[in-house]
Amino acid sequence: MSSSFILIAEDDADDRFLIQTAFEEKGFNDRIEFVENGVELLSFLQNIAVTAKEEQNFPGFILLDLNMPKKDGREVLKEIKQHPLYKKIPVIVFTTTRNELEIKRCYELGANTYIVKPISFEALLKVVDDIRSYWFQTASIPA
């Protein structure tokens, strides 16, 4: 994958710290950008789109929490997947919600993957490893 950063939408400061630490411990040296809600996420993408000449400047993927203030993950997911520039960015829903209807709804809105947040840090390390190996080594994504 050509993009060298990931965008993480997470409103909880402790979760942001744990996620960043897990990526660092797994050897991810590229840029990680954090936003705290859906409004910030869409604004971040819009700023990239305005300054970017190429789609390679978009994140390699977005890790998206569902339960955020201002604009929740469901609304953001729908907007991203309906946008002509953003819709190619893989979106990984990363949330505490285990509800089957919620999972189905996220896939219907265009989520590429749905992951329930692990409880332990060791489990988070494994998930981060799996995400990285899949999205950066296994998946074929159009440029």
TrEMBL record:
The modification 4-aspartylphosphate is found at D65. SMART domains: REC. The keyword Phosphoprotein applies. Pfam families: Response_reg. GO terms for biological process: phosphorelay signal transduction system. Keywords: Phosphoprotein. Residues 5-132 form the Response regulatory domain. The keyword Lyase does not apply. This is Response regulator. The lineage of its organism: Bacteria, Pseudomonadati, Bacteroidota, Chitinophagia, Chitinophagales.
